[in-house]
Amino acid sequence: MTVSSDGALIHARGLRKRFGEFTAVDGIDVDVPRGEAFGFLGPNGAGKSSTMRMIACVSAPSAGTLRILGMDPLRQGPAIRARLGVCPQLDNLDPELTVRENLTTYARYFRIPRRVARERADELLEFVQLTDRAGSKVEPLSGGMKRRLTIARALVNEPEIVLLDEPTTGLDPQARHLVWERLFRLKQQGVTLLLTTHYMDEAEQLCDRLVVMDGGRIVAEGAPRELITRYSTREVVELRFAADAPEDIAGKLAGVGERTEALPDRLLLYADDGDAALAQVQQRGLEPAGVLVRRSTLEDVFLHLTGRTLVD
Amino acid sequence: MVSLVLPRLAALPAAAARSLSVMERNAAALRSAYWLVMISGFLEPVLYLFSIGVGVGALIGGLTLPSGQVVSYAAFVAPAMLASSAMSGALAETTFNFFGKMKYVKLYDGILATPVRPFEIALGELGWAMLRGGAYSAGFLAIMTAMELTTALRALAAFPAAVLAGFAFGALGMALSTYMRSWQDFDLMASAQFALFLFSGTFVPAESYPALLRWLVELSPLYRAVELVRSISLGEVGGAQLVDVGYLVGVTALGLMVAGRRMAKLLYK
Predict the structure, then answer these.
(1) Predicted complex ipTM
(2) Closest alpha carbon to B167 in B116, B216, B131
């Protein structure tokens, strides 16, 4: 999908961020049109958060062009931030305030009138299912509740773009699904979502389009399904062997499937027909202790592009 | 030129409103425990006034000022206690509290994701500190008036002077806090604050120090504050007070500017 730069809410060309000698973001090009859910997928240290901070106008780019909502972050920071919602990686809720006060107080930073702030706080608490905790302090809340409150806080100014830096990292599966469901509803409402994640399932669930980042660079770009088709086979056979090292087995599988990838604990065999490939493995007299035939995911794309796994 | 200046002027009320929103946050965070902290901060200079001003003052008797006016020792010490209480009230808010919010609570990281800018946070926090410092000063002036250490009219005139002193120390403290690495660094500042309290012409007229030391004392911001407040409360205002006011306004502006810049450097990473 090609998007003309003038229609993009976020437009970056050759965007760089350096911290002293270290280059966190090494020249990336990004265009995000209105209404899209756009993801930055990559392992820790890939440069996702640094990119997000530049887009949030709280970190100055070291080089390159960056336009948010058609404006320059360096000169029009307050005007841009007024129309952004930010959910940072680490919750920075106000521990001295109650759940509801966290929303009403935050609204005031946007100069939203008190009455409107109160109404919006109640609506948002309903939206993130925290109405019954409105009068509670922040500290006793669970991780999932705090994250939902942070998301509600990011929505208090009715932003056009919502930035979510690893929105479900550290949450248990149930809490993650609740967050995903709320984010999906935002997306349906037409809010432009920008999120970073190192979870491939999160990216597949939420993102219309994503870039895979590694070492500060973009290594691939496209819709999740498109990336899988382009960089991986339809299916993957995961083979575990009791004694032999996966690398040794890989040598005996020449010609089976399209390619193999040896991980420390298992061997991945890429093939469009997983069951057929597995049959070939068995014909060669190999007897794996564990077998799993599954569809390719973004994890496989990432592994193929960088030679490393996403979550270490 | 006009197009450059106009947006800046229009931005002023917006910036002020954003600073106010930072003060509002502090008002919302007011809890019962805070009142205890406030009362203890208020009591300190009152205790000094009674123990040294009145107690030691009984042994000293009257004091002759350079102008020839003879005043009781308590009347001499009281304005100095007022200035120091303005200092400690403002410093408590802009050092410990400010540092904790910035470094540990990460409060400002959240606020900076909104249109509020670092300088506006600094201004809002200083304004809040001045509400506290102002309350201390008003209470202390009431005590001074009740004890007939000054007149009601002079107390009214001394109030803005005490508030100005608070602004200067609040801004200075905030600027210094941005250079603090950990809580341990605050011990140094507490020592410096205590030294200022003892030697800024508070208990002894600066004229009684040796020339070299006197120069040093006259450079101290607390000395300037004490001079200003004392000259008003004893009815001895002269041209020197313009220097005091200029000095304190200068310190306020410098402190705020440094604090805003440093916050931007620390938080806009």
Answers:
(1) 0.85
(2) B131
